Amino acid sequence: MGADTETAAAPSAGPLKLPIPHPTTDSVPPERPALTDDQTKKYEWLLEQARGWTTVPSKDPSTAGPLTDEDRLWLTRECLLRYLRATKWHEKEAAKRLKDTLTWRREYGVDALTADHISPENETGKQVLLGYDKQGRVCHYLNPGRQNTDVSPRQVQHLVYMVERVIDIMPAGQETLALLINFKTSKSRSNTAPGISTGREVLHILQTHYPERLGRALIINVPWVVWGFFKLITPFIDPLTREKLKFNEDMNQYVPSEQLWTEFLGKLEFDYDHDVYWPALTKLAAERRAARVTRWEAGGKQIGELEDYLFGKLAEGIQGAAAVAAPVAAAVETPAAPGAAPAPEVIEAADTTAATSVEDLKVADLKVNDETPAAKTEEAAVAA
């Protein structure tokens, strides 16, 4: 953006229309607890099992086949640990569930879901990834009042797709997301409660195939019909997950006010413009994932790779990839000095135009004024 950045950040600038690439400098994930000797032994057993897997079974012959690079990349150290925690450290059960999820991801077509396919579901902004909570979790907003489509498999695919994008843009050191739901009604939708069958399907997918991913769920404007819905699905919610649900609380307790959307009683003015936001989110997520793939390849394509290495926190992976990954190390985010803004993630790309990407911008720089040249600057950033 260059000189135009100051114009976009001026007090007269309009609402934010792009995703936010970084948490605030004081939003830091907690340190992961060290494993006990017993937990280490169970992890090592599970890792040995996973490294011995060569195929992904499936009832559908078209999806059964050899383990792919995508499968191996998914099988990180932290992924294996999430399944161990979810099964209360029953290593054989964790192995079974990991295999089941590999099969489900293949049969469901998780990696085949595209932005173009999902785009019609999000034209009204009923799901938005915007900002981070005080522990660096991506804030995943759900706005049922903005529902714009009829019940279909693509509605559930929409949620799966967005959760995958949450994982793409997570900061290093954080494994969970913050779910923020506003059941506020709209002129076109007075009943914002999802159907029971859809709710059960979504819960099954999240609990079975995304274990240990929900860090916190903040829910406001809960009408009586939605309370009834929650009572009906409570038996299907894991007790530990229920403890993470917070109803009608002040979300500013959990999310920095400057990164909390005004619709959720924060101070961040955000206007969902699908033509601007959707390609920007797609680009940001693709860049982050491409950087992780590059690091994973530089580290030797290891099953059990460290997510802190893949996400840029560590310069070396489990095989000591520093020497091999010298070009990648230059692109890794380094810890910022106290009070400093996070360093932008640098990603090599074929297109080396001068336009600034979403990655290079601070929150203030992302605000746009539709009646000034800053709007054109935003369009250039999205098109980059």
Task: Tell me about this structure.
Residues 1-36 are annotated as: Disordered. It holds the Pfam family CRAL_TRIO_N. With 384 residues, this protein is an alpha/beta fold. It has three domains: 4-22 and 275-383, no CATH class; 37-112, no CATH class; 115-264, CRAL-TRIO lipid binding domain (Phosphatidylinositol Transfer Protein Sec14p, 3-Layer(aba) Sandwich), CATH 3.40.525. The chain is 39% helix and 8% strand. It is built from 14 helices and seven strands. It has helices spanning 4-9, 37-52, 69-74, 77-86, 91-108, 115-118, 153-169, 196-209, 224-233, 239-242, 274-298, 307-310, 326-329, 374-383; strands at residues 55-56, 65-66, 127-132, 138-142, 177-182, 214-220, 245-247. The strands form two sheets. Strands 3-4-5-6-7 form a five-stranded mixed sheet, with helices on one face. Strand 4 (138-142), helix 7 (153-169) and strand 5 (177-182) form a beta-alpha-beta unit. Helix 4 crosses helix 5 (91-108). The longest helix is centred in the last third of the chain and has 25 residues, at 274-298. The protein is globular.
